[in-house]
Amino acid sequence: MVTLNDKYVKGFVEQEELTALKAFVEVAHQNMHSKTALGSDYLGWLDWPSKMDEAELTRIEETALQIREKANVLVVIGIGGSYLGTKAVNELLGSSFGFGETEIVYAGQNISGKYMEDLLTYLKGKNVALNVISKSGTTTEPAIAFRTLRTWMYETYGEEAKERIFATTDKTGGALRKNVDANGYVSFEIPGDVGGRYSVLTAVGLLPLAVAGVDIRALLKGAEQAEQELQNADLFSNAAYTYAAYRQILNSRGYSVEVLASFEPSMSAFHEWWKQLFGESEGKQGKGVFPASVVYSTDLHSMGQYMQNGRRMLFETMIRFTEDQQNSQIPFDENDEDGLNYLTDKTLHEVNMQALEATALAHVEGGVPVITLDVGKIDAHHVGYLTYFFMKSCAMSAYLSGVNPFDQPGVELYKQNMFQLLGKPGYEKKD
Ligand code: PA5
């Protein structure tokens, strides 16, 4: 379902380097699956697709239906792993223009006054519901947005606001849980053993995605297929592990920046999810591949120059959706003034795939190793598979570099500083 093509990376890596990692991958795999690996309290995502509770799934679908009936805009309030997965999957599966019956918009991922004012203006006169999502229930950005939007909801809908507010949070801890219990909002639980950036297949992603009209059962089925197919400890036959191994070898050879490249503009938000997944999981103890992204052809006419001729610390991972789902032909023109008639026997997809091939060839020639990941097509099943594939490869890649994939100690320092600067009680400067 995700096939790794290493034709354009082989020339940069010795076969022995891969072989040397085989035993390490096997040990990391055993530790991961026996849940004894570093950060093992957060390995719940590993078998989540196959063990997701049917009754909870049905409750999510029913709630999504109710939200769709009463709202044409759902505001998802969350930051990091609490919203990036939803945005990634929704934008990839949805239309490039407009949306279905219920639009999903986002809040709590910044503290911009302009953004909030613009959002409140946009919401005026619309039928609105909120889904506030925070595992810890204490993150400042979504908490501020929730307070602001909650106030607006009560001003707009009176007591009916209660029926329009939905929360997804930890079972017991955090200020959000207290708020939910005090007000009786309908709520969903984030499993204790699944961290934010690994949570897209839980209620965190499933509720808003179901509201957006995504087939969440197909998404989970695709992830379940990945869960089964990527259970193999062998680095050479498990594509998620081959990818992880290539990343680590390339990094050790000085290719410390990985650029995820797609030829589909609707992959933009997916890139952001992927960057958070790898950046937050691996970037610690002075280690980690820096994750970056481009969307081609757009970026061939901006970042393409750097990719071809800039500093050589880059490798590229190209996502190729192999199936032509649109079959859009390039029309024939009798006069052929633009000289494009030579393309009329081809679809846009075929031309796009040649653009990918041409780019890979050029970048390899320019000294950029290119890994290609083939994904059948853009649908819920394949996207479910792809998200699981990346989560599994990310965990393995982090283990191979010796870091815990599931913590984010580096995110704390800015918070402490901000609280101190804002005068939060308990965070006063000590001389
Ligand atoms: O991946 C993670 O754990 C983080 O990015 C969190 O999702 C993010 O910090 C938001 O945390 P919370 O859901 O607790 O508000």
Automatic annotation (TrEMBL):
Database matches in InterPro entries: G6P_Isomerase (IPR001672), SIS_dom_sf (IPR046348), SIS_PGI_1 (IPR035476), SIS_PGI_2 (IPR035482)
Family: Belongs to the GPI family.
Organism: Planococcus shixiaomingii
Pathway where this protein functions: Carbohydrate degradation; glycolysis; D-glyceraldehyde 3-phosphate and glycerone phosphate from D-glucose: step 2/4; Carbohydrate biosynthesis; gluconeogenesis
Primary location: cytoplasm
Record-given protein name: Glucose-6-phosphate isomerase
Gene label: pgi
Catalytic site positions: 280, 415
Free-text function comment from the UniProt entry: Catalyzes the reversible isomerization of glucose-6-phosphate to fructose-6-phosphate.
Pfam families: PGI
Enzyme superclass (EC): isomerase
Enzymatic reactions: alpha-D-glucose 6-phosphate = beta-D-fructose 6-phosphate
Keywords, alphabetical: Cytoplasm, Gluconeogenesis, Glycolysis, Isomerase
GO MF annotations, alphabetized: glucose-6-phosphate isomerase activity
Source superkingdom: Bacteria
Enzyme Commission no: 5.3.1.9
Keyword Cytoplasm included in the entry's annotation: yes
